[in-house]
Each structure stands twice: as C-alpha cells, then as structure tokens.
Amino acid sequence: MSFDGMYAVLFDWVDGGFFDLNWWQLVLITLALTHVTIAAVTIFLHRCQAHRSLDLHPVVSHFFRFWLWLTTGMVTREWAAIHRKHHARCETPEDPHSPQTRGIRTVLFRGAELYGEEARNRETIEKFGHGCPDDWLERKVYTGHPVLGVTLMAIINLILLGPVGISVWAVQMMWIPINAAGIINGIGHYWGYRNFDCADASRNISPWGILIGGEELHNNHHSFPTSAKLSAKWYEFDLGWAYIRLLSMLGLARVKKVMPKPRFVSPKTRPDGDSLNALLAYRHDIMSAFASHLKRACREEAKRLRDGRVAEYKLVESARRWVPIDASRWTEPQRARLAEVCAASDRLRTLLEMRGELTALWVRSTASSDQLVSQLQGWCQRAEASGVRALEDLSLRVRCYAA
Questions:
Q1: Alpha carbon distances (Å) from 378 to 59, 121, 354, 359
Q2: Backbone angles phi, psi at 135, to 5 degrees
Q3: What pTM was computed for the model?
Q4: Disulfide-capable partner of 236 in 84, 110, 207, 374 (CB 3.0 to 4.6 Å)?
Q5: Which residue numbers in the chain have pLDDT < 50?
Q6: What tens digit of pLDDT does each residue of 151-179 get?
Q7: Shared-domain flag, residues 149 and 291
Q8: Do 192 and 332 fall into the same domain?
Q9: Three-state SS for 1?
Q10: Per-residue pLDDT reduced to its tens digit, 35-48
Q11: Is 334 exposed, middle or buried (0-12, 13-18, 19+ CB in 10 A)?
Q12: Is residue 374 part of a domain?
C-alpha cells in the first residue's frame, strides 16, 4: 500500500473509525451498550448473585460476567457482599451507602467512592460475599485484573468508533456510578412513593422501571428482597423482569421466588395454621392496610377535635405524618409525643396497640406454631370486640387470607 493509501485509511479512521457512524447512531449505540450493562447489573449481580432469586444458564452468567468486566471493572463477590450488607444494616451507620445516615448529597455525588471504600473492607467481603463465582476465570482474570477489562473496552471503542469512541467509553464508565451508586442508592432511599411500609426508608422512584432495568422500584425490592420480580402493582413495569421471563422461556433462566400476592377465601370462623402462614407471607399487605386505616383515623380524629380542643387537634393533625409509618422508623421526638397522641384519642391508642400486637407475631420469638395461632385468634377476637370499625375490617381480612 502506498503512503497516500495508508494516509487515506488513517484519515478515515480518525474521521469515524471503521463504522463511521453519524451523531444519532453514536447516541443509539451508546444507549444500547449502557443498557446491556444495566441488564447485567440488575439480572446477574443483583437478582441472581446478591439475592439468589433466580438461576441463570452458565452461558448467560458468563456473558454477563465478561460484559461487566469490560464495562465496569466491578468484582461480583464485592458487589454482592456490599449489597447484602446494605440490606442487613439498612439505614444504620453500618449501611455502606444510606442517605439517611450519610446525607443525600454524599450518596448522590460520592456513591462510587463509598462503594470503593466498602470494597476495601475485607470483613464485609468475607462475611457477606459467600456463594459467588470462584472459578479460574473469576480468580485469575475478572477479580485478578479488573482494570484490564475496562482498558480493553476503551481500545475496542477506539478501533471501531475512532477517537469519539473514547467519549462513548467515558459514558459507559460513568453509567453505573451515576445510576446505581448515585440514583438508586441515593434517591431510592430519599424520594418517591411507597407501596409497602417496610422498616427502612426505601422508595419507588418511578412506577416504570425502564431506564435502570426495574431498579426504580426500590421500595418493592426492599419489601421482598428475594423476589425476582420488582413490580407489585398493575400499573408498574419492571423491564428486568421482562428480560428474565424471556430468558426463562428460552430455557436460560429459572425463577426461584417472586413476591407473594394475597389470596383470599371465604372468611373462616377462627384463624387457623393456614391463616397464620398466610399472614406471615402477606404481612406487608396487612401493614399497608393498617397504615391506610391509621391515616383515615388521624384525619377523622383531627376533624372531631378541631372545634373546641385546639391543642389536641394540632397534636393529632401533626401525627398524621408519622403515626401510620412503621414504628421502627419513628424519631425520638415522635416517640416522646406518642403518649400525648394516645391520650387525645382512644381510637388511635387502640389502633396503635393492636398494630403492635399483630406485628409481634412475626418478630423472632420462641413461641410454637400452636401458640402463635392462639395469639392470632385472640387478636382477632379483641379486634372485633373493640368497637373500632377499622379493626373489625382488618380482622376480617386476616380471616380471609389463604396461604
């Protein structure tokens, strides 16, 4: 080849690489590449490795491992361990990335740093990193040389796309730190709506889990962490679950667990062992119903007290913001006001006492199954004899549950 020919080839490569894509094609290819990374994180790292909610065919697992090595440099065992610790220590000072303890700005803008700091904590990795891939490829390549993968990705982009490929590579490298380490770990525990009143501050950012593969449904996930499906309501969409269903139909995935949907039968005269098992499975459903009744009760009690008992009215009105949420998330000032709220309203006092008794049924205890059934039967009897319509409705709901 002549010098002029070599110069022409080099000029063509500098101008656009081997593919010579225009700007909108580059945008599409960048979105496609980053979306594969999102799918790998939510399906492989999160649902398969961290929570064991599904099994993947070895071909699919190896593809995801290889792709994550190229596009993130993250180590499977480290990611799974840090995420498991997040669930085990959620919203406490030991949580690796809670905006409730570290501040929303810290998690949003330093999420990747927080991940790196925790990855260097060998105690975390040893305690929470069990069961992850440990073959030769993982030890000698993926874990042994994490920087090599992202370097190889930069070279591939440079060859195929030309110098602009480095910009595409930079977007790939920032995609997970921004979307997972920042948005999910930050906003997902700070802003949004809640379907379930679980003990942490997790929230659903959006009912349509598309951009981050379903991880937007973060409250649903924290309420049912071992579920392979993250959508709970009819209007919610989990793109990651759509991919899992497709893989299942192709024989490349096996779903092990999804969140239970309440099943109802004709009301039983008295709750039995089946009712107890159903209550334990559907406890988030009954607690959501309880929260709705408490909100309504606060509103009605505030209206009743408004004309004549101003101080008590203001107390109950302010309680509407915190009384319905899980008691474990009350602040110390709120706990200090609880006695005053109960003194102002017998109805709220009864509802709160009965909620505490019901919650105690699934807290760790040494009670036998028969003892728990007896306690549930006693709870329903007291609820129906309380004269509080909300408790009568909740008792009926419990007696209609079927496992």
A1: 53, 48, 11, 14
A2: -85, 180
A3: 0.85
A4: 207
A5: 3-4, 6-11, 13
A6: 999 999 998 888 899 999 999 999 888 88
A7: no
A8: no
A9: coil
A10: 999 999 999 999 99
A11: middle
A12: yes
